[in-house]
Design goal:
The complex is a heterodimer of chains A (450) and B (98). Chain A is of the alpha+beta class and 450 residues long. Chain A has ten helices and 14 strands. Chain A has three domains: 155 residues, Beta-Lactamase (2-Layer Sandwich), CATH 3.30.450; 65 residues; 140 residues, Heat Shock Protein 90. In chain A, strand 1 and strand 2 form a beta hairpin. The chains are: A alpha+beta (450), B alpha+beta (98). The interface between A and B is large, with 43 and 29 residues. Chain A: Keywords: Coiled coil, Kinase, Membrane, Phosphoprotein, Transferase, Transmembrane, Transmembrane helix, Two-component regulatory system.
Chain lengths: 450, 98
C-alpha cells in the first residue's frame, strides 16, 4: 500500500476518529462513574450521620451523650479511614475512636436554615482527604444545634476507581480495534466498485469488450457512463481518422497512376526525368499506403483482439497462389490452429499479406510459413529461398528505411508489416532462412526492452 | 458498564455494614409482643408518627411503662430539628411530641 491508497487513508481516518470518540467516551464514562461513586458514598455517610442524630442526647447536667455508636470496625481502628465527630455549640465534642489523637475541623455552618446534608471535602487525620457529610441537628429546643460530621478517606474510593479504569481501558481498546476492523472492512466493501471497474478496464484493454459493461453503484455509474462516452467518442474519432487517411490514400492513387503514366510516356524523350518521376510517384504511393495502414493499426490499438493465425495464412496462400507466376512456388503451411495473433484479423491479413507477398516475389521454389505459440505469446515465420537480404539492409528496414529504391514496391511491404506488428504489440525480425533466403518472423509479445 | 455498578454496590454494602445494630435483644421482645397482640406492627406505628412529624426516622425504641407499650420515635425533620414522638403501641395514640 502506498501513501496514496484511498483505502488505507480512509481506514486510518476512521480508526483515528473511533479512537478519539472512545477516548472522549471513556473519559465521560469515568467522570460519570466518579460522580456516581461520590454521590453514593455521601448517601451512605449520611445514613450514619442520621443514625448519630438519633443517638445524641444531653443529660440533666448538660453533658452530651451517645446512646449507641456506629459499629463499623473502621470507626474503631485508629486512622481506620472512616470517621465521625459530633460537636455541640458549647464546645462539647465526641469523636470516633478512629480519629484517635486528632479532630476534624468543623466546617462553617451553611447560610440559612438549610438542613440538607452538606457534602464536602475536608482534611483527614493522617494527611488524606475525607469525603464528608455534615449535618446540623437541633436535638432539643432551647439548645443550639449540634454539628455531625461523618467522613470517608478518599483513598478508600481510589481502589474502586482504579478497578474501573483497569476494566474500562482494555474494554474500550478492544472496542476501538473491533470498530476499526469493521470500518476497514466497510471501506474495502465501499471501494469494491473501483476494483470491478479496473477488471472491466482490463477486459477492455485485452479486447474482450469495447465498452465498460455492468451496472455500478449510483455513485460510480456516472463515471462509468462518462468513460463509455469517451471510449465511444475516441472510437469514432479514430474511425474518422482512418476513413480520412483511407480516402486520402485512395484519392492519391489515381493522380499517382496518371503521374506514372505520364512519366513513362516521356521516357523516350527524357529517360532520367521519367525515372525520377516514377520513383517519386512510387514513394508517394508507398507513403500513402503506409499512412493508411498506420491509421488502421492505431484505431485497433486500445482494444486488443485476437485472431487465429492458421485460417489467415491459408487464405493468403490460396490468394497468392492464384497470381500469375506462382506455379513455380511450393507453399508449405505449418501453422497450428492454437496460435492466436494479438490483433484483429484484418491487421494480421495486412502483416502476413505483406510478408508472404514479399516471399512470393523473391522466392524461387519453396516458401515455408510456420508458427508456434499459445494464447499469450507466439511467433509466425515466413521463410523463402530467394536471394535474401544483406545484414545492413535488414537493419535499415528494421529502422523503417526503404532499402531498394530501384524496384517499385519493394521494401514498403516489409515496412508496413513492421509498423503493424509494432502497433499490435509484436515485433518483426528479419533474418536468413534455412534455404538461404529471407526469413521474416513476427513474434509477440514484443520484448519490453530492445 | 456492569462492573462499575457492581463496584458501586459493593462500596454501598461496605458502608451499609457500617450501620450499627441496636445491640440489645429488644427485637425479640417486640416480636413476642406483636405475636401476643399487645402491640401493632411497626409500619402502622411509623405511619402514625409520620402523620404527626414528617422527616427521616433516625431512632426507634420500644419501652414498657405500667403495662403500656410505648414506641419512642425520633424523627429528623427536613429543617434539621430532631423531634421525638411517643406513641401508644397498641392504640397508635400519640402520647407526646417534643
Amino acid at each position: 500500500m502506498t501513501g496514496r491508497s484511498l483505502r488505507l487513508r480512509l481506514s486510518l481516518a476512521a480508526a483515528g476518529l473511533i479512537a478519539l470518540a472512545l477516548v472522549l467516551g471513556g473519559a465521560g464514562l469515568f467522570l460519570i462513574f466518579d460522580a456516581a461513586l461520590d454521590r453514593r458514598t455521601a448517601d451512605e455517610l449520611d445514613q450514619t450521620a442520621r443514625f448519630l442524630a438519633g443517638q445524641v442526647a444531653f443529660g440533666a447536667d448538660g453533658a452530651m451523650t451517645l446512646e449507641q455508636r456506629p459499629a463499623d470496625p473502621r470507626y474503631a481502628a485508629p486512622y481506620g479511614g472512616l470517621y465521625w465527630q459530633v460537636d455541640a455549640a458549647d464546645g462539647q465534642r465526641m469523636r470516633s475512636r478512629s480519629l484517635w489523637d486528632k479532630a476534624l475541623d468543623t466546617p462553617p455552618r451553611p447560610e440559612g436554615d438549610d438542613a440538607e446534608p452538606q457534602t464536602l471535602d475536608i482534611p483527614g487525620p493522617d494527611g488524606g482527604t475525607l469525603l464528608a457529610v455534615a449535618r446540623a441537628v437541633q436535638v432539643s429546643e432551647p439548645r443550639p444545634p449540634v454539628t455531625i460530621l461523618v467522613g470517608l478517606d478518599r483513598r478508600q474510593l481510589a481502589a474502586s476507581r482504579t478497578e474501573v479504569l483497569r476494566l474500562l481501558a482494555p474494554t474500550l481498546a478492544a472496542l476501538a480495534v473491533a470498530l476499526s476492523l469493521a470500518m476497514a472492512l466497510f471501506v474495502h466493501r465501499a471501494l469494491l466498485p473501483f476494483r470491478a471497474l479496473r477488471d472491466d478496464l482490463g477486459g477492455l484493454r485485452e479486447g474482450r469488450t469495447t465498452t465498460l459493461p455492468g451496472r455500478y453503484a449510483d455513485e460510480v455509474q456516472p463515471l462509468v457512463d462518462d468513460l463509455n462516452a469517451l471510449l465511444d467518442q475516441r472510437a469514432r474519432a479514430l474511425k474518422r481518422a482512418e476513413t480520412q487517411a483511407a480516402d486520402m490514400a485512395h484519392g492519391l492513387k489515381t493522380p499517382l497512376a496518371v503521374l506514372s503514366a505520364l512519366g513513362r510516356r516521356i521516357a523516350p524523350l527524357a529517360p532520367a526525368e521519367a525515372a525520377e518521376i516514377e520513383r517519386q510517384a512510387e514513394a508517394m504511393s508507398a507513403q500513402a499506403t503506409r499512412a493508411l495502414a498506420r491509421a488502421r493499426a492505431t484505431a485497433a490499438g486500445l482494444e486488443r483482439r485476437g485472431a487465429a493465425a492458421a485460417p489467415v495464412v491459408r487464405q493468403i496462400a490460396a490468394a497468392l497462389d492464384r497470381l500469375p507466376g506462382s506455379e513455380r512456388l511450393d507453399w508449405r503451411i505449418e501453422t497450428p490452429d492454437i496460435v492466436v495473433f494479438p490483433a484483429s484479423e484484418g491487421e494480421l491479413f495486412e502483416i502476413l499479406g505483406a510478408l508472404m507477398d514479399n516471399a512470393r516475389k523473391w522466392g524461387r521454389r519453396s516458401i515455408v510459413v510456420s508458427a508456434h505459440g499459445n494464447r499469450d505469446s507466439g511467433a509466425i515465420t515466413v521463410a523463402d529461398d530467394g536471394p535474401g537480404m544483406a545484414a545492413d539492409e535488414r537493419a535499415r528496414i528494421g529502422r523503417g528505411v526503404r532499402w531498394d529504391e530501384t524496384t517499385p514496391g519493394t521494401g514498403f511491404g516489409l515496412a508496413i508489416a513492421r509498423d503493424l506488428s509494432e502497433a499490435a504489440g509484436a515485433r518483426l525480425k528479419l533474418g536468413v532462412s534455412e534455404f538461404g533466403g529471407l526469413e521474416a518472423t513476427v513474434s509477440w509479445p514484443a520484448p519490453a526492452a530492445d | 458498564m456492569i462492573r462499575p455498578l457492581a463496584i458501586l454496590a459493593a462500596a454501598a454494602l461496605a458502608l451499609g455494614a457500617a450501620l450499627p445494630a441496636l445491640g440489645d435483644d429488644d427485637q425479640d421482645e417486640a416480636r413476642r409482643a406483636l405475636e401476643r397482640g399487645e402491640i401493632r406492627p411497626l409500619e402502622e406505628v411509623l405511619a402514625a408518627a409520620r402523620a404527626r412529624v414528617s422527616g427521616d426516622v433516625v431512632k426507634i425504641e420500644l419501652d414498657r411503662d405500667d403495662d403500656l407499650w410505648v414506641y419512642e420515635i425520633k424523627i429528623l425533620t427536613p429543617s434539621g430539628a430532631r423531634r421525638e414522638v411517643e406513641i401508644d403501641a397498641r392504640s397508635l395514640r400519640v402520647l407526646e411530641v417534643d
